[in-house]
Structures are given as structure tokens and as C-alpha cells.
Amino acid sequence: MASVATAGMVSAFAVASSATACVSSSSGGASKGSATGTVQPQRPAKSPYYVKGWGTPVFNEDFNDPSLAQWNIHDNEYANHDWSTVKKENVTVKNGKIILNTKRLDQAVNDEKNEKKRWYSAGFIDTVGKFSQAYGRFEMRAKLPTIKNKSRGIWPAFWLRADNPSNGGEIDILEAYGTPDAVNGFDPAGRSQGTLHYTQDGENWTMTSKFTPKRIDLNDGEFHTWTLEWTPEKITFLVDGQAYHTVKKTDDPRWKKAFGSGDPYSIRLNVQVGSKYWGTPNPTDTADRTDYVVDYVRVWKYRG
Prior knowledge:
The protein is mainly β.
């Protein structure tokens, strides 16, 4: 645009047992017999989140803990390029989901520094200082807030940034943009964008990017999955299990510093309102409230 949960496997082993039975005869004599049975230990069942080639998650967030112990909840912040104020009240956990919403305020927040009035509030969480990882498989299942023709400026994201401040790398696993779009002449409805940023040099950001296929409608009101598979050799973006964008380390000389240095990256989930790229919000084209609903976030370790 970081909290660690371990998905453990519960192993159940049957304990070998032996039993000796004494059987009495009808004549009153006793005949002794013994029967010994041994149950072999069973292999641990695979985690339901096991993925071939990646194993089980090292970070698993199903949003069943309302305290969000694995996350930092941002409050009273804003970005200079949008029209919202980040508020902790815009982050709620309900029924095993987290909801990052946007709301139109009754009264605008006056941002004198950036010479704008912020008419919206929005939610933002991250795992900085709690969980970060270099390489691996990162996945989220979510329902987007980009209501067709009623979400101008709405901008949900699932992204990673390096913990090392000298590393300008950024991986935007998902960015989606509300409509109608009045700036670029491109209709992003039903699609999302996967992007690699090699630097964070303001207006001179360098990146490689691609939108998801048109055949997958991400604005259908249903949940979808966004996945990133990151190895020292390449990064692949997937949506609903289908790969649509791959960038290899040989594609750009800046890869090594940004994505091949071994610097760990932490996770961000947020939604912004408005940008110069995808339009400014207004009461007519932007709903008073939108909900970015996330079902889970999981991370698998790169196993080499």
C-alpha cells in the first residue's frame, strides 16, 4: 500500500495394553488363560491446513480471539494520499471473522498539513513486532468491500513490508479498487491487483504488477482466497488457487536486495478511502459504510 500463532497438530497415540483373564470352570476348578493384544501407535493426523510442499502453517489466524493478540490495531493515523482517518473502532471481530470497515463521518477531520478534509474513517491492523518471515506461503480468505458503482475510492489491501527500514521492498498480495473510477479510465470492478515494489522512493516507486483474470469475479459478494508463494527464486501470485502472475529473480536486478536478502516481512491488512490513482470519495458514488470481511490469514514456512 506483523503475532505469531502456531497451528499445532494434536497427536494421539494408542497405548499398548495387556489383559490377563482368569476363567473359572463350572466344576469350581480354575483354569488360567492369558490374552495379550497390542495396538500399534498411529501416525499423527495431518493438519486440515496442510499444503503439499509447504507443510502446516507457522502462523494461523482464524479470528476467534476478539483481543487480536497476534495483531497491532492502528488508531488516530492517516496516510497523506487518502481521505480517511484510521480508527480502532473500525476494526471488529465477530463470528470468526474480522471486519475492517469504512464509515462516512458526521463531521470531517480537518487535515491542515495535507490541506484536505477527511470525511471517512477506516481500519488497519498489522503484525509488526509480532510476526514476520522471509519467504513462504501467505494466504488470506476474504470478501471485498468494493461494491460495484457505490465504492469510489474504497481501497482494501493485503500486503507485506520488510522489517528492515533500509529495504524498500513491498509485496501487495491484494489491492482492489472501488468503482466508478473517474481518473484512469480503467474499470477495475471485479478484479484485484498483485504488485511488487522494489523501492519506496515517493513518486519514483518502481514495481511490477498485474491484475487478476477477468473470468474470476471478485465482486460477487462471496469469499475468495489470495495467495502468495515466495521462494528465493521467484514470487507467484494466486487467486482462488489459480496462478496469474509470476516474477523471477532473474527478471530484475533489484530483486536480490528487495526480496532475496532474507529480510523478514510482516503482514498488513487495511482499507483506505480515496487516492489520486483511483478517485476521491463522495456521498453519491461512495457508500456511507463498507465492510472488508476477512475469514483467515495463514502463513507457511519456506522449506527449501
